[in-house]
Amino acid sequence: MCDPTPYLALWTAVVETALNDIRAIRPGKPTSDQRGSVAWVLAESKHVASFEWACDMLGIGCGTRHELRRLANKGAENDTSHIESHSDSTTGGCNR
Predict the structure, then answer these.
(1) Where in the chain are the domains?
(2) Pick from 74, 90, 96: nearest CA to 25
(3) Which letter does DSSP use for residue 94 in this model?
């Protein structure tokens, strides 16, 4: 049987990187990586490698997902010329 630890560590790093990208957005000056992180967190997909999928796999709860989406929405608002804000996408796969 395969040890899942490296796989979980990889996806933990992906989520952490997205969070760090979003936190580092400067108004009007997001990088393409930061835009990608915002889009990934705000996407409503539940497919493999999506934000929802990663959160499910890592056991990240609804409250944390909501907070990550709130930060991503704030980042999107800092770059309205490139990314449309998804203010209604705050619950993702969680029923709240």
Answers:
(1) 5-77
(2) 74
(3) S
Please check whether residue 75 is in contact with residue 55, taking contact to mean a CB–CB distance below 8 angstroms: no
Q: How far is residue 44's CA from residue 52's CA, in Å, rounded to a whole number?
A: 8
User: What digits encode the pLDDT tens for the residues 55-64?
Assistant: 999 999 999 9
Helices (H), the chain: 5-23, 32-42, 51-58, 62-77
Q: Write down the pTM of the prediction.
A: 0.78
- Tokens 């967190």 locate to 41
What's the token pair of residue 66?
């909501």
**Token couple for 46:** 């539940």
CB distance 79 to 35 below 8 Å: yes
Residue 46: name the closest of 56, 37, 38 by CA. Answer: 56
Please classify residue 3 by burial: count the beta carbons closer than 10 Å to its beta carbon, then call 0-12 exposed, 13-18 middle and 19+ buried: exposed
